[in-house]
Structure formats: C-alpha cells, structure tokens
Amino acid sequence: MSLRFELSMAAEAASRHGPRTGTLHLERSPTDTISIATPGFLKYTRRGLQPHMVREVEREVTALSAASRVQLEDFLERDFPAVGKYSEGLHRFVHMDRSELLLLDALDPTVTRRTAKATNKFLGVDSEGGTKRVTPEMFVKLVNQLKPDVYVALADYVEEPEPSATKGKRIAKSVERIGPVAGRLREGDHGLGPPFGEKLALVRHSLATLEPAKPRYMVGVSSPDQVLQAIRLGIDVFDSSYPYAVTEQGFASTAARTSTCGSSRCLTISARWWTGCTCFACRSHHRAYVHHLLMTKEMLATVLLQIHNMHCYNRFFEAVRQSLASGDFEQCAEKFLDHYGCMAGEAAGAKGVKRAFDELELLASQANSPTTKDPAQAAQRGDCQCRRLIFELVLARAALCGGHYFMELWYF
Amino acid sequence: MTISSFDSLTPIETSTSPALKFEVLAKCSTTKARASKMTLPHYTAHTPMFMPVGTMGTMKGVTTKQLEALDCHVILGNTYHLGSRPGAELLDKAGGLHKFMNWNRGLLTDSGGFQMVSLLKLANITEEGVEFENPHDGKKMMLTPEMSIGLQNSIGADIMMQLDDVVSSLTTGARVEEAMWRSIRWLDRGMAAHKRPNEQNLFPIVQGGLDPNLRTISAQELSKRDAPGYAIGGLSGGEAKDSFWRMVTLSTDVLPTCKPRYCMGVGYAEDLVVCSALGVDMYDCVFPTRTARFGNALVRTGSMSLRQGKYSDDFRPIDEDCDCPTCKNYTRAYIHTVATKETTGCHLITIHNIAFQMRLMRDIRQAIVDDRYPQFVRSFIRRRFGKTVPAWVVNALKSVNIDLTVADEDGYSAKPISEDFQREPNN
Ligand SMILES: [Zn+2]
Ligand SMILES: [Zn+2]
Asked: Which residue range or ranges hold the tRNA-guanine(15) transglycosylase-like domain (chain A) (predicted)?
C-alpha cells in the first residue's frame, strides 16, 4: 500500500506558501487505487457513519468525496475498545466501501471542551463509561488491528483554561503540536486552542519547516471562510464537520448559506426546496415538508438537511478547485470573505461584526439535535428565545448580503 | 421481493368497490387464513400485510425511497396529528399527504378519535361528536364524524377509518352497547359526508367491547353497509389475550369473506401469525418502529436489546437469516455502539424491524399460497416460545384446527401456560 501526493503546481508550491491543487493517490494494489482531488475534504463521521446518514442514504449524495475520517474516541466504551477484537478491519466494521480512504484519528474535532487531560503516558478521553486512557502503545495496537489507510499519530492538545476565555483574550499558550505521520501534517489542536487568526500564523510558521510536496490536513477546520483562508496558506485537506454543525442548527445551506427551516417563511408549497439545487432532498421534497418535520421534531428532518448540506459543501469544494484551476481563486476568495465580514477572526470581532459561519461554535455549546424529543434536552437547547435570536441574526445577515450570493460567486 | 407465484393465481373470491378491488387468491385448507391481492388507488398490496405507522407523515428518519425498498405496501398516518400539523389547508395545497411526503404507495389514516380520547384527558363524547379542549388555547372544540371525514379527504389516503365511539376494552355494561350503536350512526353520517368515494375507501369499525352478542350485532349491521373493507376495533387495549382472540375470530366469522379485514393496533409477531389463522388480512402497530428507538431489534425468538454490554463484542449480524441492509452489512457489536447514541443507530434498527415484519408477512403469505400454513405456524411457535406457549395462543389455534398440544411429525408439542406474554423461548 502506498500513498502518493501529486501536486499540479509543484514547482511554484515548493518555493512559497500558497494555494495549490493536487491529487492524493492511495494505491492498495496496482488495480486498486483511490484518487482524491485537493483541496478536498474528509467526510466527518460519528461512530463511523456520516451524521444522520446510513449508507443507502449517503449514496444519494452524488460524487461525494471518497475519503472519511473516523475517530477512535467514538468507540471507547471500554478500556480496550471491543472493535479492537474485530478481525476484518475498520472499513468492514463500519461498512465503509473499500473504494474509500479511511483516516483514523484519536479525537473528535467538533468537541471543544474536554475534562480528561493528557499526560506523558496517555491521552485521557471522556467517554460514557468514564475517562479512558489511550496510550501510544494501545493506539498502535489498534491501528494494526483496524488497518485504516491513514492514521494521525497521538498528540497532546491545548485547551482554554476556563470557559470565560471564549469572549475575552485567550490565555492559552499557543503551542502547536505537530504530528507528522509519514509526511502528513496534523495542524491545529483539534479545534481547541488559539483563535483562528493566531492559528493561521502558526500554520504559516509550521509550513515553512515542512516538506512542501507532502499533503497537509488541517483538522477541524471546516467553515467556508476558514477553509478559504487556510487554502491560501497551502492547506490541502479539511473535514466536513461544518455541514453537520449547520444541520444541527436546523439550517440548510442556500445560496447565501442561510435559510432557517424552522421559520414560518418555509410555509410555501409552490416551489421545491431551493431552486436549482439538484440534491436528493430538494428533488424529492418541498421546503414546507422539511419545515413540518422540524416543527414536529421528526428525525427525517436532519436526514434531509444533512443530504442537502453535504451536497452544497461538496459543490463548494468543486468550485474552489475550479477557480484554482482557472486562476481566479484569489479574486473570488477576497470577494467572498469581504461579503461575509469574516477576515481572519479577531479583526472581524473587533469591528463588532459577528462571524457569518459560527455553526461549529454553536454546535459546541448546544450539541443536541433539532429532533431531540426529550423535553429536558430540548430546554437545555434553549429552544425559545435564544434560538429565535440566532435565526433572526442569520436571516438579517442574509438580507445584508442581498444579491451577492455564495453560489453566484462559486457556481455561476 | 414480491411472491412470484402471486400474480399468476386465479381469484377464488372477488369484491369490487369504486376504489378497491379485493381478490382472495388462496385459502388455507385447515385454518381461516387467506392470501389476497388488494388493488388500491395508489398501489396493489398483498395480504396478509403489516402496515408500519408514520404518525406525522414520516417514519423514524427512513426515507420513502428506503420504505419502498423495504417492501412496505401501505403505511399509516394519524389524522389527529396531521390535522394539527401541517394542517388541512397545507395538505390541500400540497395535493394530499402522498405528494406532501413523496410516497407513491398506499396510505391509511385513522379517524383521529382514538388519539383524541387517549391523548386529551378532557375529551367528552356526545351524539354530535368528540368534544375536547384545544391544547393550544383551551377553547372547546368538536370533532364530528363529518369533520373527521373532511380532514381525511384532505389527507387523501387510500383507506380512511370511520370516527367511532371509542371505549376502553376493559369497560363493561350499557356504555359498551351505547358506543356500539353510536359508532354505527356515526358511520352512516361519515359515509354521507365522504366526498371522494372513487379515490378513497371508508372502512367501518366493528365495536362491541368484549361482549360476543354486541360484536355479532355490530359486525352484522356493518356488513349490511357494503363497505370496501372492515376494521376490527376496540381491542389491544390491555384486555386479556384470551378475550382478544375470541372477539377477532367472532368478527371474521360474521364479516363477508370477499372483503378485507383489518385488525387495528396489532403487530407482535405471534399476534400476526395467530390472527392471520383467524382470517385477518391487515395490521398496524407502532411497536416495531418505536422499540427501535430504544435499541431493540426484533427477531423470531422475541427481541434483542442491543444496548446490553454482551453485544459489544458480538460480531454476528442481528439475524443471520435476515436480508435487510442492516443485517447484511453490520454486526451486533457495531449496532451496539450506535444504538440510542446516534440517529443512525435508530435508523439501522428501524430498517431491520420493518424488514422483519415485512419478511414475516411474506412468509405467512407464501405458506398460505403453498397450503402449508399449519406447518408454518407450528415451526414459528416452536421457535418463538419453545415448549411452553401462552394458553391464548394454544386456544386460538385450536379453534382453527391446529392443536399444539398434540405432537407433530417433528415431535414438537407445547404445554399451555397462563401468561399472555413470554419474553424468551423456553426449551
Ligand atoms: Zn438540496
Ligand atoms: Zn435485518
């Protein structure tokens, strides 16, 4: 088995930081090769399946990236995970097609607050069965047993010292722990740690010392604005935690990325979902139906939203690669970031502009699905006031950006 | 997934209504079981059939495309729920529930009355209809037989249920008789209010509690109405199972043999096998899909609680004989890790549980067509219960000439026990 990375702008990329396109080839045997175009993304999974999507449903999203990430912490119910006794590999266990690249990582990038700590001997992981210790030896043993195509070496992470740090200045020392595994780069502390602007500076610094011809995966970076900024620096691979976070807020990506299905404006029956969208959900159902499902907290709501959101996210990356190929990436990215007022995190914060793509932060603060029927959990989710505020904010932003749509920039 | 021999069979008995054609294709030579074809406006269903319940116009995160692949012929919607959300106005605009939920096969709706009486404590029944307090604004509202039909006409299901005067199956005395006669009067009002008889079928409901005389009168009265099909109602509400089956078999004895019979709210595997022997054609139950949400998978021996730690390193499928996507692709260990934790866990078990019900019904139909239903029943009961079998099952089957207490050629015989339910088989 070999992993080969082919840069289409090799000479240029070797000399400087900068956006680049390439292809990641995973060759299991001469007749069994997987190719993934970069910039691209790994499908974010929960316990080995994309959120809300069983395999038959996943297949409804056409031309989806052929690479997934699975995190070991999802399987740590016992001290030594039961899956470690399974002899047929992780692909088979989670019923992932062999034509997909599977990356194994220890931690879930969407979890931003952890109580278990890392020590010199092990990585502490919070699980339903209490804190579990993942030692490097155990991790290697599992890697040998589960046979992922790619794995990310165990690494420590930096966490904010206290919750109040979210608003104010972060005290956390911006220590980057880079885990280069066979030439692959792991960057960015699993979503924990310094604000994005600082992260970018660290990425720039780190990339200067790493071999340019190797692929670079920035873990947990997924929102369109951050993806564009990271691509500018030369990051190749991301993951799809962002569309999942969008789904969990009951949103659907639209042209302007912001339509709240929980609002009564979805009560129109005349049109299919989002005009022009060719995804399975939009082809099959009215917007009013999805609204009905959200109002009644039916599970099919998040299934359909996730299908649509993954479809849009996939097309976003297609468009990015296209614009890189045609040479107008810088121009498009600039225009896009300008519209959404989200230049490098803090700068925008200072201007008092709320970031347009904050679903991942929302996900971290209220992890319950919009279809949860448990009244206690629903209350915890802040169903009434604050949720409505979020909706209004997002809608207002859509109006603000009026006309200059995400899709126009990238798709037309 | 259909029985190939089904379509080549010559009907033994046929009834034709404007929106339903029922053809009995095979009859068991021992029991009252029959296998039939029911042509509805949206789909031709094979019976005996189980109809999964999708209260709100959706089923536990499973897409309608998956439901088709699972061989569902008819699914259920609840009128009371659909009437409050999305409401008749939106359903009219959408062109009915079929289009609203994008389901092109059969649909059946209940009258809304049962939900009203069971969900709303303050419901008050008068000759006019069911009076209740609107849970949103506290105002007094009324559901009449005419309104129930109107709402069901908006939903547009292939089969609608009459509004009936629901009394608990544990009620006795004059109230049961009153409810039985009132239900017949409400049926007549509903039939008069039905605006789409060429596109939708209205099924009357046999009532009469656990009183054999009242049941007989009810079934006789309803038979006179020449409806496209009939439902057996007011049961599976906590009554003794030995009373339940007697009411079922009494109803199927009176109702016309050329029309479909629907036993409402029944869905445990043993109930389906026994009631089919008593001549029932259609069933519905929330149990298979509801129990999936709690991590329980159905198997021929009962059910399997996949949350239990013992499954965490069990690398076998839920059921080796099941050909559903879940069993073909996943181990119990994997489902254990997702059960009750991810929505996908619920989806995977729901898919299996629906497939389980559908396969059981296909097996029942095939056994009837091959005229080996008694053998099928015996091997089913043996696997499900082992040596001791609830007495009601033994009694019900004995009434249709299957005597479980007498050893068969495989040497199997059963001992009746007084419990209505038995969790695990006893060998
Ligand atoms: Zn779409
Ligand atoms: Zn199965």
From this structure: 19-177, 193-340
CA dist B64 → A407, B52, B60, B285 (Å) = 29, 12, 11, 18
Interface predicted TM-score (ipTM) of this complex, two decimals: 0.94
Beta-carbon count within 10 A of A322 CB: 15
Do residues B341 and B287 touch, judged by C-beta distance below 8 A?
no
As a whole number of angstroms, the distance between CA B365 and CA B362 comes to: 5
Tell me the residue type at B81: H
Tens of pLDDT along B224-271?
999 999 999 999 778 999 999 999 999 999 999 999 999 999 999 999
Mean pLDDT of A131-154: 92
For chain B positions 63-102, those within 8 Å of chain A (CB to CB) are 63-66, 69, 81, 85-86, 90, 93-94, 100-102
Query: Which residue has better confidence, B200 or B419?
Result: B200
Domain that holds residue A32: 1-38
Residue B127 clears pLDDT 80, i.e. is over it: yes
CA distance A101 to A412: 31
**A294 in contact with B at a CB cutoff of 8 Å?**
no
Q: Is B276 annotated among the ligand-binding residues?
A: no
B270/B302 Cα distance (integer angstroms): 9
Contact A316, A70 (CB under 8 A): no
Nearest partner of B202 among B233, B248, B156, judged by Cα: B156
Instruction: State in words which class domain B3-285 has.
Output: alpha beta
At residue A290, the pLDDT reads 84
The total number of structural domains in chain A stands at 3
Highest mean pLDDT among A40-44, A286-290, A376-380: A40-44
H, E, C per residue of A330-362: HHHHHHHHHHHCCCCCHHHHHCCCCCCCCHHHH
Is A286's Cβ below 8 Å from some Cβ in B? Answer: yes
Please give the positions of B annotated as active site: 110, 284
Look at residue B58 in the predicted model and tell me its pLDDT.
94
Are both A250 and A360 inside the same structural domain? yes
Q: Report residue B401 as tokens.
A: 């000439």
What residue spans define the domains of chain B? 3-285, 386-427
Residue B111 is assigned to a ligand binding site: yes
Question: Is there a binding annotation on residue B112?
Answer: yes
The answer to whether B119 and B80 are in contact (CB under 8 A) is: yes
Gap from B139 CA to chain A (nearest CA, Å): 22
Are residues A96 and A1 both part of a single domain?
A: no
**Do both A58 and A198 map to the same domain?**
yes
**What span, in angstroms and rounded, lies between the C-alpha atoms of A302 and A304?**
5
- The verdict on A355 and A273 lying in the same domain is yes
Residues of chain A with Cβ-Cβ distance to B104 below 8 Å are none
Among A185, A219, A253, the domain boundary falls at: A219
Domain membership flag for residue A278: yes
